[in-house]
Design goal:
Helix content is 17%, strand content 31%. The chain is of the alpha+beta class and 650 residues long. Strands 2, 4, 5, 7, 8, 9, 10, 11, 25, 26 and 27 form an eleven-stranded mixed beta sheet that branches. Strand 7 and strand 8 (121-136) form a beta hairpin. Helix 3 packs across helix 9 (528-542). The chain is elongated, with a radius of gyration of 33 Å. This is Sialate O-acetylesterase.
Length: 650
């Protein structure tokens, strides 16, 4: 095994492509059948025409955003005429030279279900409503199956007016035009609800119940992902360690591109200026200082009586892997160095007079070649034609040239933007009403840049989606890990502070405060239902323009008055309050020594006064500044929590 023979009915262009694929798969004996199947599929693809194709998101049960112009797009053969029919209207276009096409639908009112036709393709059960792009890390993609015991109503879900699409994971070093395959739209009927993620489900349910408008939840998230991976390279220029050396990448790809893949197997290719190589022989013995791919060409004469006859090609043993062509027709390949090369030359390939054997030989070690003591010949009707001796050769791909570029790309697996390229950029033509962002846990060990990252992400996505005022709903991290006996530093508190500052400084954003619904011993808290309610409350004010209080008390400024500090707030609603009705908790006061201690805090009108009996000259206050400030209880009378804050900048 290990030697591949294929029918002669395919031209040299397809055969060369198959041979290259064969090499790149680095075939082992046990994988031969898999490779043969792959090659057969490739042959089928090579001879079939490209039908109309739609993005994965344009599919049955999709939701389109209401009240905005919509883009329907896809791919087909260049120049193909496309008819899109939607709600009894036709939209005509044709593909460009690269096979892309698109039409624009006018803004639509909420409703459905509708049907979309694109030539012979029919997309059914389409709703028009509100589409939310949801992203972040594992808490955004917590599967709903984990919550069934806590919320048994999930099992009886029967809502076909809310839909869900999970974008498959796709890392990419460059922006992709399509999301990875495998995603599909699901509704929230009982038979499909287990496909959902938890937060998306509860938000969609509550939004539909409040607005009566169909909802589509487009979830593009990945557990454990850092925020940097969701920001484009253009926005990360101030963080050099996160940038990919594009010049090195392009140069490496050029160096690793096979220069001969399309032409050097053709009989008419002019190889008169190529150097010569003696077969058998090894590269280094003949001063060929290269590793990668070399092409070898040998011409021979064939008598007229042997023209068109079946033959057998013996090419000894080669190092490492080869693809062999006779007169431009692929006759066989071997994926590793050990087997003897014996390839059948089907009838109809050989011809009277000049013939050509071409070998594409790859050696990753840099000392490929033809093993001595073996036969190198063509046998036709018992007549042997000796192929040993002088061959022409040329370097098709020299991997040594790419070595220096690879050194410059050592950070390839640590650069930012890979999820932006693969899971956000492909959504640029999708219209959404807003974004829900739930992420930060993975950045809590190095929170110092998170505020800047989040501002860049918002700017970036607004540019990509062409919505300068695209609303962002930010989920502030909930409480997690054991509570501390004394005030202490906290990476989670600093992430919350960064999220708070962004919500205060960046227009069209809103923040939900959640340090009461986490779990100290589980980074994935189950109470996504209350979190969804808080997000919807924020959306009702920010997105839908309702007149209501959606935010808890927000720290504004402080005044030092003798041995106490008075804190002033905005968003006090009907007034400041204590959630449990007893005493305020989780306020810490620091004096001139910079050491924080738990302090007494009392509400005085719209302010909070903080004191400590041992601190006569206070300088700073912190509130809910901890990994797990679950007992912090400052709210307004609308029962909305105050966001954690600090008055210092230490």
């Amino acid at each position: 095994m290990g030697v591949l023979r294929l029918p002669s009915a395919y031209d040299g262009r397809h055969n060369a492509s198959v041979a290259i694929l064969f090499h790149r798969m680095k075939i082992k004996k046990g994988r031969f059948c898999v490779v043969l199947l792959s090659l057969a599929l490739l042959f089928c693809a090579g001879v079939s025409s490209a039908a109309i194709r739609l993005p994965a998101l344009i599919a049955d049960r999709m939701v389109l955003q209401r009240d905005t112009e919509l883009k329907i797009w896809g791919w087909a053969d260049p120049g193909e005429k496309i008819t899109v029919r939607f709600r009894d209207k036709n939209y005509l276009t044709e593909t460009d030279a690269t096979g892309n096409w698109a039409v624009r639908l006018p803004a639509q009112k909420a409703g459905g279900p509708y049907m979309l036709q694109v030539n012979e393709i029919t997309v059914r059960d389409i709703l028009i409503g509100d589409v939310w792009l949801c992203s972040g890390q594992s808490n955004m993609e917590t599967p709903i199956a984990r919550l069934v015991e806590r919320f048994p109503e999930i099992d009886a879900s029967n809502n076909h007016m809310i839909r869900y699409f999970k974008v498959p994971t796709q890392h990419a070093l460059e922006s992709r035009s399509e999301i990875s395959g495998g995603g599909r739209w699901c509704s929230a009927v009982a038979s499909e609800v287990m496909n959902w993620t938890a937060l998306a489900y509860f938000y969609a349910q509550q939004s539909y119940a409040h607005n009566g408008v169909p909802v589509g939840m487009l979830v593009s998230s990945l557990g454990g992902s850092t925020i940097e991976s969701w920001i484009s390279q253009a926005q990360l220029k101030e963080f050099p360690k996160l940038l990919l050396d594009r010049t090195a990448l392009d140069s490496m790809r050029l160096a690793e591109r096979d220069q001969g893949i399309n032409d050097w197997v053709k009989p008419e290719w002019d190889d008169s200026n190529w150097p010569t190589f003696t077969v058998p022989g090894l590269w280094r013995e003949q001063q060929v200082d290269s590793k990668g791919v070399l092409y070898f060409r040998k011409s021979f004469e064939l008598p007229a009586e042997l023209s068109g006859r079946y033959g057998m090609l013996y090419l000894g043993t080669m190092i490492d892997s080869d693809s062999v062509f006779v007169n431009g027709r692929f006759v066989g390949a071997t994926g590793y160095m050990y087997p003897p090369r014996k390839y059948a030359v089907p009838a109809g390939i050989l011809r009277k007079g000049s013939n050509l054997v071409t070998i594409r030989l790859r050696s990753n070690s840099g000392n490929g070649g033809f093993v001595a003591g073996k036969s190198y010949k063509l046998v036709v009707n018992d007549k042997e034609i000796n192929l040993a001796g002088q061959w022409k050769y040329q370097v098709g791909m020299d991997l040594a040239l790419s070595k220096s570029y690879r050194t410059r790309l050592k950070n390839k697996n640590e650069v930012g933007s890979t999820l932006y390229h693969g899971m956000i950029y492909p959504l640029k033509d999708v219209k959404v009403i807003g974004v829900i962002w739930y992420q930060g846990e993975a950045n809590s060990d190095a929170p110092q840049d998170y505020e800047r990252y989040l501002k860049l992400l918002i700017k970036d996505w607004r540019l990509a989606l062409n919505r300068p005022q695209l609303p962002f709903l930010l989920v502030q991290l909930p409480n997690y890990m054991p509570q501390q006996e004394r005030p202490s530093e906290s990476g989670w508190a600093r992430i919350r502070e960064a999220q708070f500052k962004v919500a205060q400084e960046v227009p069209y954003t809103a923040l939900t405060v959640n340090y009461d619904i986490g779990e100290w011993n589980d980074i994935h808290p189950l109470n996504k239902k209350d979190l969804a309610a808080r997000l919807l409350l924020a959306a009702r004010k920010l997105v839908y323009g309702e007149k209501l209080i959606s935010t808890g008390p927000t720290y504004q400024r402080m005044e030092i008055k003798g041995n106490k500090i008075e804190l002033f707030f905005t968003n006090v609603g009907s007034g400041l309050a204590i959630r449990d009705g007893k005493v305020l908790k989780h306020f810490a006061l620091a004096g001139q020594d910079g050491q924080f201690r738990w302090a007494k805090a009392v509400i005085s009108g719209h302010t909070v006064v903080v004191t400590h009996p041992d601190i006569t000259h206070p300088v700073a206050v912190r509130y809910a500044w901890a990994d797990n400030p679950a007992d912090a209880n400052l709210v307004n009378k609308e029962d909305l929590l105050a966001s954690p804050f600090r008055t210092d900048n230490w």
